[in-house]
Amino acid sequence: MCGARSRGVGGSHSVWGMDGRRAIEWSEAAWLNQPEAVLVEGDSLLVTARKGSDFWRTTSYGFVHDDGHALLTDFPPDSALEVGFMVAFDELYDQAGLLVRVDEKTWVKAGIEFTDGVPHLGSVVTHGRSDWSLAPVPAWAGREVTIRVSRSGDALTMRARCEDGPWQLFRVAPLDPAATAAAGPFTCAPTREGLTVRFTSFVVTTPDESLHLD
Fold first, then answer.
1. Residue 110 lies in a domain
2. Does 8 fall in a domain?
3. Domain for residue 3, yes or no?
4. Run of H or E including 64
């Protein structure tokens, strides 16, 4: 189960392109935990997170949070999703990216999080308890970043790029091939009010053909 969700906002279904990609309309997906505010502005979606929102289970901090905001659509095997957003973060743990969710104890978030004064590219993989891996990307501050997650076999392959730069592999994590999953853009504001994230794209496409891209 992927949890109770409320429908998204605005728009209608788009069509597949010759390149095997389709833009997902914001209205096709459904909210897990309604944000403070949501606004469609042209092709972008502006999402204001509630203070204290987060996804985390137990490790190191001792608490469980399952109240981050995620706009989710079905994520079957042998597919990939991409989410683009602007990295306009300046307070501790400001974050956005792409969430893959099976249930409240089984999920992955991949994206950008602000910590130690700079944005970091990272992921949290949760199977009962959460882990956290990250690396600083200070040059990505103020720029558009796209997170891509491919689901193939028993694995999720996570890549990211800044603007039109090359894709960077940053995590491979297990996911049961039989699991029913949903995925889509997410944001959290664990420590402050007023975080608004501009999401610029939401695309479904084919999964990576290989772990190592030429």
1. yes
2. no
3. no
4. strand 64-66
Residue 213 lies in a domain: no
Alpha carbon distance 195, 95 (integer Å): 9
For residue 1, pLDDT over 50 is answered with: no
Q: In whole angstroms, what is the distance from residue 195 CA to residue 48 CA?
A: 6
CATH number of the domain within which 143 lies: 2.60.120.200
List, in sequence order, every residue forming a beta bridge with 51; answer none if it has no partner.
189
- Strand runs (DSSP E) across 67-105, as ranges? 69-74, 79-86, 95-103
How far is it, in rounded angstroms, from Cα 32 to Cα 185? 10
Evaluate if residue 5 carries a pLDDT over 60.
no
Buried b or exposed e, range 113-139, using 16+ CB within 10 angstroms:
bbbeeebbbbbbbbbeebebebeebee
pLDDT tens for 85-140 read 999 999 999 999 999 999 999 999 999 999 999 999 999 999 999 999 999 999 99
Q: Which domain holds residue 170?
A: 19-204
pLDDT band for position 3 (cuts 50, 70, 90): very low
